[in-house]
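Page 47, continued from p. 46.
Same chain as before, 276 aa.
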Amino acid sequence: MANRKVLDPEQSPNAAFGARLRSLRDERGWTQDELGVRLGCSGAHISAVETGRRTPTRTFAASADRAFALGDQLQRQSQSLRFRALLEGFPEYVTHEARATEIRLYEVGVIPGLLQTPEYATALGDSTVKRGVATKEQADERIRMIAQRQASLVRVPSPLIFVVLDESCLLRPIGGDTLMDAQFDRLIEFAELPNTVLQVAPFSIGVRRPMTLPVTLLTMPDRSLMSYAESANRGHLERDAASVLPLLTDYHQLQAEALSRASSIALISKLRKGTP
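Result:
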């Protein structure tokens, strides 16, 4: 045991989880290999989690909870680690999005998560891993979050969803033609739902474009408003009506300048592979 690494739980959330896992294992007198057998993984994997070199997955944490009879304590701790793959403020926003009666989105450069196909989301996630921006586990968590958000929209009564896509969202290639064709099909299917309005803001709007940065506006069941926007490092949720109402006005102006629903669908159809 002379070479046993000293763990500092204050170093990072990963280190805190690893230190707790080792403490629980030591209390029971199990070796890393013995715990690995109980969790269905190798002793080397246990070592990587304990030393903070690997972020525990949802499945790993659930298995550890069962092995140590902890209910869901480790799952909840690991969830906070996975949320670190998301911008600060975003997990809180998602809880409000799941309750909103109206959702208004404006996106630039990329199809918003609520409208992404799994393949599109995976391609974006893979790119962050290749660039070293995120680990594979973090990218997978983002994809799971997108699926959960999309599933939360299938509720009664259905929320009204208004989406304005900057033309750059459609022209930026993600993956190959087949992937983009499927994504365009998804947009058209979304636009044809009875509770949605999808519009494209073409480049030709020019200086008449009242918004240049992505933003989301939520109307809650009590008719209160909130907005969500992201910077490079964090997301910001705004509840002050004095700040949100001007954004809502800008959004309405953007919708007036954007292509109609029918014209937007026609443009998306033309961008599909093989369409004249």
